[in-house]
Specification:
The complex is a heterodimer.
Chain A (H helix, E strand, L loop, with lengths): L7 H11 L18 H14 L4 E8 L5 E7 L12 E6 L6 H17 L4 H9 L1 E5 L4 H9 L36 E5 L5 E4 L2 E7 L10 E5 L43 H12 L3 E7 L35 H15 L13 H7 L5 E4 L25 E9 L2 E12 L2 E8 L2 E10 L2 E8 L3 E10 L2 E7 L5 E10 L17 H12 L4 E9 L3 E8 L12 H16 L5 E10 L4 E10 L8 H5 L6 E5 L6 E4 L3 E4 L7 E10 L5 E8 L4 E8 L2
Parallel strand pairs in A: 3-4, 3-9, 9-10
Antiparallel strand pairs in A: 1-2, 2-4, 5-8, 5-20, 6-7, 11-12, 11-18, 12-13, 13-14, 14-15, 15-16, 16-17, 17-18, 19-20, 21-22, 22-26, 23-25, 23-27, 24-26, 27-28
Chain B lengths: L2 H9 L1 H13 L36 H14 L4 E8 L5 E7 L12 E6 L7 H16 L4 H9 L1 E5 L4 H9 L34 E10 L1 E3 L7 E3 L6 E8 L45 H11 L4 E9 L3 E4 L14 H17 L4 E4 H5 L6 H9 L2 E7 L3 H4 L14 H9 L5 E9 L3 E8 L12 H17 L4 E3 L3 E6 L2 E10 L8 H6 L5 E19 L5 E4 L6 E4 L8 E20 L3 E9 L1
Parallel strand pairs in B: 3-4, 3-9, 9-12, 10-11
Antiparallel strand pairs in B: 1-2, 2-4, 5-8, 5-14, 6-7, 10-12, 13-14, 15-17, 16-17, 17-21, 18-19, 18-20, 18-21, 21-22
Helix pairs in contact in B: 3-4, 4-13
Classes of the chains: A alpha+beta, B alpha+beta.
């Protein structure tokens, strides 16, 4: 075969794209750093202006500090009103310092808006459904990241002490070593119980006297006056962690949970939104907690500090709901390539409230956290689900009885696929289309004519064939060898200490992240010489900015997939059969073709969700003689499950009767007209 | 009251003329202020009219209540403030009356009594109790020294009606426990679309029955045809009971299944709050409704509230929490707090015949998220709920089974003989659009839970007196004379004791456990003073000190001063001149004493 000239620029760009070094798009949202309120506002306004019909931006409420809690509503305005179509709610940045959440949420908005019209899945999602995005529920708390950069602050400031970042007097420290950070200070003290960990001297652990160990340190917040450690803090007088301000497993009278449940303007706005936007079918929250990288456990104990209550208060995801969580977690792992755990102890959190008390499918994940094996490996290639043909493939063909290896490199540009097929005989550029895990592309080889490649992808495996015109066709198999973010080979052995702190240190060391301030001497006004050091504030919360784009992209793709799982009830069929003079039997059948059922098991238990309701509207001359005019069932499963309703009525032939089907959060109110004949 | 005017009154001549004028001026239910120079008349000399002549044998709807409050405020402007603390769902003002004597200090620096009424819109008498209490205190300030003492030394925050939409619904149509915010009770996607209705236009929602001979469930009672009894077993009755007046408004085959509102504001408070599938009516989250949130915001902003009374009906109860057996894992308050509750409620039983002192979950039923638990736990307020009125009060005793009137007739006997038939609506025919020929009748909304008007004033007075007793027993702190003793040179021992002359501690134990509000503090300062050591006076001879670790000049007293108890501290100081000792308490106020170091 004659060599076909490559298009170097495309290949380079393709390569760059595949290697994960996604540059900040010149006109896109900033992804090279975290955004303060002004920058976030500008980015959201930019998106809304560039996509005026598909996106609308409004302030859901204003924080105590007067900042907007931005709500972006995405959806094609044509067709059913956006507030009546099944909607996915994406909420982020409830903890003030969880900025990666707001970046990922912002990116998801951009992902949806820019790929509309080009990506079939995105287009269908926005045409038929709605996506609500609250990229930053805690704007006052987020601003502390810049106003008080030395601290790790998940709170919002308390009105009585606006300059304290929400900290109470037991937590306020001082920068002793001039590094602008408030870390820890360790003080030599004969009564100290702590000693450096021999395996990892940067960390301290409790000395075990039974093993002839001797403690030598006490540890405090850097610069604190030790007298303040037992200072009195009235409950509700410090800054609130908004993701601890919700009623399920609320930690009564503990610090940083507010004076009572849903006490803050931000959390009240979010709760009211959940209950008044009755088209919201599922919630995805970016928060430190997780039930996507790993599914929720079958058994867990209520976190410490939760009040005893009646045995009817559930502690675990209900048995009928767990398989759905399991499946969705598996798909999350495949689509994003991410696994691991989030923070535990999610008492009083919003995602929990949405499931346990509002009864809705509620998913949460931190976007970034400690990689599971602790080796410092960056996330693996995104394992493909259906539709993910993009990537670099190593293929093995048999051509006229001869085995031949090659590679196939596929990328999506705009609405079409571009593929580069390399074999020992040469390279050819192809263009084509692909969706649902299948693709087809073709190109021209001079003196050979057109060749085509078709393939089908499942996970990391591909099967397909190459059509070579008059020379016949050859089948091939392929495996994925590259995708965004190919991992470097892990080199560090697992450390002996197995606490999260040990694993974080290993990870920082491997990844070359300056996440730990080494202990150095400093002077304390009353304690004398101390050593200052510890984890860098927020180093374990937000990734280095270079990783934002890649992580955001993975989560955006998952959000698209999740949006498509929302239930939707449709009327399959209505039948009217005569049963004698003026007597008719009416049958209506509905179905839910989507994955999620209309109600989780938890949703059938709570009293905040209506039942699935079908009713014949009162009509002059029509009497229902069997079956009540309004019939209800608790739920309808997905994947094509059906339910039928029948009525026996009397009425004059030719009478029109309106029938309503009400499936809140799964399509809302639909109606159809039946005629008696 | 001046000496001159009291002479005039005793002479009687001026008094007679005044009475005549006042009688002429008082027309109808609402009296207006008479000539401004005339004084309020005493409770203890019942031969004259009060300054503001309010009838206490009737009920007042929202607008009339508002008018009465304005009248009272205009009549007693020195002590009364009227303000709105928020709007109900339909936009009605939720009124707050503050009683305070500004000449003795601002209200927020005094121990304050708080009450609310009407949280359940059908429990109407609490509003009248509140009006009565305001009126009584104002009318008698000049005449009963105990009243003067209370008004001068305490503050009162009184919310006469915290659910005004439901109250108005009661007066206009029928009893309504919930607020009027639309709520989808039958979970069919439509909110409040099928309430019961006043089909006959008599401003009542009564009962419906249909004569269905041989096919019914009930028969008329042989004792009285107005009574319906279940048909004897094995037989069919002649009547079918059809529930409350109403039609199937939404055509879904059921009547009255989704009425006005459908939630319970007294399950909308934070402590113990559970979602609706565990506690009916609790709505979306604590304080999700404007009425409960207005109360929450008010109480959060008034840390000086030491006593709370919430008015409900019915049953004749003096209730306290906890609302659930799961409270703290024990189902009971701590001993110190229980003793304080017992002190008040046991005496309340003496003041309120037919009322029993009860604990909510143990003696009544489980309540998750009610007012009492939140006020007690989160704010450290001693809180009672009175269920006003017991039907036993009608009979002033126990009904005799072998008496002349059968037991099942007791209510009708009362209706007929003491009410002249006022409260039972005779069954009357009605043409129902769906049910055909039916009859409508039954007990009026003014019967049952609502106190009979001729017995109302006694109820109002006794319960107002219980509330006033509760207010009177709020902590009242007084310094004993501190002692100063020179140890040597410039070093002195100072001992100070603060005593609580009332039953309610200056800090409840639950407040200490939950970090509610601030601890009390015993402080000392002076121009030339160094505090060497400080702590609680201890030892058999009270000459030892249980030292505090640090900051001895500001000793926290986290358990406050117990009811009828005292707290004594001892300081060792060096210095000269005078020193000021101060005791500060959220609910006990701030008190000072000065000593000289010599």
């Amino acid at each position: 075969m004659r060599r076909i000239r490559r298009v170097p620029l495309l290949a380079a760009a393709t390569l760059a794209l595949l290697m994960g070094a996604t540059p900040a798009l010149a006109q896109g949202v900033p992804l090279d750093g975290y955004l303060n309120h002004q920058e976030l506002t500008r980015a959201l306004q930019g998106l809304a202006n560039q996509h005026r019909s598909m996106a609308s931006l409004e302030a859901l409420a204003r924080s105590d500090g007067g900042r907007e809690i931005w709500l972006l509503t995405l959806g094609n305005p044509a067709g059913t009103l956006r507030d009546q179509r099944p909607a996915l709610l994406l909420a982020a940045n409830l903890e003030g310092n969880h900025l990666i959440g707001s970046s990922a949420a912002l990116y998801t908005a951009q992902h949806l808006l820019t790929r509309y019209g080009q990506d079939e899945e995105v287009t269908r999602l926005l045409d038929q459904q709605t996506v609500y995005i609250l990229p930053r529920v805690n704007p006052d708390g987020a601003e502390l990241y810049w106003a008080m950069p030395g601290y790790e602050l998940p709170y919002k400031p308390h009105l009585s002490a606006p300059d304290r970042g929400g900290l109470n007097i037991r937590e306020l420290g001082r920068d002793l070593n001039g590094d602008g950070l408030i870390t820890l200070m360790r003080v030599r003290d004969p009564e100290g119980e702590l000693m450096p960990d021999p395996d990892e001297p940067r960390l301290l652990r409790r000395a075990d006297r039974a093993r002839a160990e001797r403690g030598m340190y006490k540890v405090y917040v850097e610069g604190i006056d030790p007298d303040n450690l037992d200072a009195y803090v009235p409950h509700g007088s410090d800054g609130v962690n908004l993701n601890r301000n919700f009623p399920h497993e609320y930690l009564f009278f503990q610090p940083h949970v507010g004076p009572h449940q849903v006490s803050e303007v931000e959390t009240r706005a979010l709760a009211d939104f959940l209950f008044t936007r009755t088209n919201i079918g599922a919630i995805l929250t970016f928060s430190p907690y997780d039930n996507l990288r790993s599914p929720p456990p079958a058994q867990r104990s209520p976190p410490p500090g939760t009040e005893p209550g009646p045995p009817t208060v559930p502690t675990n995801v209900l048995p009928q709901d767990r398989p759905f969580h399991q499946y969705i977690s598996e798909r999350f792992n495949e689509i994003t390539g991410l696994s691991g755990d989030g923070a535990t102890d999610e008492a009083g959190s919003f995602p929990q409230y949405a499931y346990f008390q509002a009864g809705l499918p509620s998913f949460t994940t931190p976007v970034w956290t400690l990689p599971q094996d602790g080796s410092g490996a960056r996330p693996g290639p995104a394992a493909a689900g259906e539709g993910d043909v993009e990537g670099e493939w190593s293929i093995a063909m048999e051509m006229m009885g001869q085995p031949m290896d090659g590679s196939l490199s596929i990328t999506r540009v705009g609405g079409e696929l571009r593929a580069s097929l390399n074999t020992p005989g040469g390279a050819v550029e192809l263009t084509g289309q692909g969706q649902g895990g299948q693709f087809q592309a073709s190109g021209e080889v001079p003196q050979l004519g057109s060749i085509s490649v078709t393939g089908r992808v499942t996970g990391d495996a591909m099967t397909g064939s190459v059509g070579l015109g008059p020379m016949g066709s050859a089948s091939f198999t392929g495996i994925r060898v590259g995708g965004p973010g190919a991992p470097p080979t892990p080199t560090a052995r697992a450390r002996r200490g197995d606490t999260p702190e040990h694993r974080w240190l290993s990870y920082f060391d491997e990844a070359g992240i300056d996440g730990f301030i080494d202990w150095t001497e400093a002077q304390h006004p009353t304690l004398g010489t101390v050593e200052v050091g510890g984890f860098r504030p927020n180093a374990r919360v937000n990734p280095p900015p270079a990783e934002i784009a890649d992580l955001a992209e993975r989560h955006a793709r998952f959000a698209v997939w999740l949006g498509h799982q929302l239930p939707k009830v449709e009327i399959v069929e209505t039948k009217v059969e005569g049963r004698g003079d003026n007597v008719f039997l009416i049958t209506a059948t509905i179905t839910n073709e989507r994955y999620l059922p209309t109600h989780f098991q938890m949703g059938t238990r709570v009293r905040t969700l209506p039942m699935l309701t079908v009713r014949l509207m009162p009509t002059d001359g029509v009497t229902v003689i069997s079956g009540t005019p309004q019939q209800q069932i608790p739920r309808l499963e997905g994947m094509g499950a059906r339910a039928s309703f029948t009525w026996l009525v009397t009425g004059r032939p030719g009478t029109n009767i309106r029938m309503e089907v009400f499936a809140e959060r799964a399509g809302g109110l639909q109606s159809t007209t039946l005629t008696l004949r | 009251m001046t000496h001159a005017s009291s002479q005039l009154r005793r002479s009687g001549r001026f008094g007679t003329a005044f009475r005549g004028t006042v009688v002429g001026a008082v027309l109808g239910a609402l009296a207006l202020v008479a000539a401004p120079s005339l004084e309020a008349q005493p409770f203890s000399v019942p031969d004259r009219d009060p300054k503001v002549n309010i009838r206490w044998d009737r009920y007042y709807d929202y607008d009339q209540t508002t008018e009465l409050l304005r009248t009272l405020q205009r009549a007693f402007p020195r002590f009364l403030t009227l303000e709105s603390i928020g709007k109900s769902w339909e936009g009605r003002d939720i009124w707050l009356v503050t009683i305070n004597n500004p000449d003795t200090g601002p209200h927020h620096q005094k121990a304050a009594f708080y009450s609310d009424a009407g949280i359940h819109g059908n429990e109407v008498q609490g509003t009248e109790v509140t009006l009565y209490m305001i009126w009584f205190l104002m009318e008698n300030y000049d005449h009963l020294p105990k009243v003067k003492e209370l008004v001068d030394s305490r503050a009162f925050y009184l919310v006469p009606d915290m659910n005004p939409d439901a109250r108005q619904h009661f007066f206009d149509t029928s009893a309504l426990r919930s607020g009027t915010r639309p709520f989808d009770s039958d979970r069919d996607g439509r909110a409040s679309e099928d309430p019961s209705q006043d089909l006959t236009g008599n401003r009542e929602v009564l009962q419906m029955r249909k004569y269905t001979p041989g096919e019914g469930t009930h028969v008329v009672s042989p004792v009285d045809p107005r009574l319906m009894v279940v048909a004897p077993r094995g037989t069919k009755g002649d009547y079918t009971l059809l529930g409350s007046e109403g039609t199937d408004l939404d055509g879904d085959g059921r009547r009255n299944e989704d009425g006005v509102g459908g939630y319970d504001l007294n399950r909308n408070f934070p402590v113990g709050w559970q979602p609706m599938h565990i506690q009916g009516g609790s709505h979306w989250y604590p304080f999700s409704n404007p009425e409960s949130r207005a109360i929450g915001d008010l109480l959060k902003s008034r840390p000086n509230v030491a006593a709370l009374q919430t008015w409900h009906n019915t049953g004749g109860m003096i209730l306290r929490g906890p609302g659930s057996q799961y409270y703290r894992g024990t189902g009971e308050y701590t001993n110190r707090d229980v003793r304080a509750y017992d002190f008040l409620a046991e005496r309340g039983e003496l003041m309120l015949p037919y009322y029993r002192y009860m604990t909510v979950w143990k003696d009544l039923y489980t309540v998750y998220g009610g007012t009492l638990d939140w006020a007690h736990d989160a704010l450290g307020i001693m809180s009672f709920c009175n269920e006003l009125w017991s039907q036993a009060q009608l009979y002033q005793g126990f009904w005799k089974d072998d008496g002349p009137v059968p037991a099942e007739m007791q209510q009708l006997f009362f209706n007929d003989r003491l009410g002249m038939g006022a409260w039972f609506h005779e069954w009357e025919e009605f043409d129902h659009p769906e049910l055909g020929k039916i009859e409508i009748g039954g007990w009026s909304k003014w019967w049952g839970r609502t106190t009979i008007p001729f017995m109302l004033q006694e109820l109002l007075h006794r319960n107002a007196m219980f509330a006033i007793f509760h207010a009177d027993e709020m902590p009242l702190l007084r310094f004993d004379e501190p002692t100063v003793e020179r140890i040597a040179g410039n070093t002195f021992r100072i001992t100070a004791e603060i005593r609580n002359e009332r039953a309610i501690p200056s800090r409840m134990e639950v407040a200490e456990l939950n970090n509610a509000g601030n601890p009390d503090y015993f402080r000392i300062r002076g121009g030339n003073l160094t505090v060497q050591v400080g702590g609680f006076t201890s030892g058999e001879l009270r000459n030892e000190i249980r030292m505090v670790d640090r900051d001895p000049g500001n000793i926290p007293v986290s358990s406050g001063v117990q009811g009828h108890g005292g707290v004594s501290v001892t300081w060792i100081v060096t210095g000269s001149g005078s020193a000021t000792i101060e005791y500060t308490s959220d609910k006990g106020g701030t008190h000072r004493a000065t000593v000289q170091l010599r």
